[in-house]
Amino acid sequence: MLAELGSAELAAGLPAACEHLAESVRLIGDPCVRARTALEHGRALYVTGRPREAAEALERGRLELLQSGIEAPSLAMELRAGWLAVARTDQSLRSEAAEVAREVSLDPPVGNSYGARGRCSPRWRAS
Questions:
Q1: Is the C-alpha dihedral spanning 39, 24, 93, 80 positive or negative?
Q2: What number of helices (H) and strands (E) belong to the chain?
Q3: pLDDT, block means (10 residues), the chain with 127 residues
Q4: Predicted local distance difference test score (pLDDT) of residue 111
Q5: Which segments of the chain does DSSP mark as H helices, in order?
Q6: Residue 112 carries which DSSP code?
């Protein structure tokens, strides 16, 4: 229920969304639901002007999903794509983003969503 509150607050532009989504990520047991909530938390952090924290939340969500052993390649790629989008806007992450974009271009994603495939395509390589 806390995740739904955070999502509603995010839609309404309320700053409490970030804290409620963060707490929700901590409390959720299901790895896929936790990763999906981490994705929304990362987006909330980004749109509220906290790109570094957004990148950390997105990467943490992706790594936890991978470590869980659950096969969710599309969700993992959405988290990676979100991280890339955020990292390209943060000067301290640009070189890492360029390396990740290069790696992704060598092994293109096969995610089920347009965003997962599009945002990780070679044309998104950092300049």
A1: negative
A2: 7, 0
A3: 89 91 95 95 94 96 94 90 92 91 80 50 40
A4: 54
A5: 2-12, 16-27, 31-47, 51-68, 73-87, 94-106, 114-118
A6: S
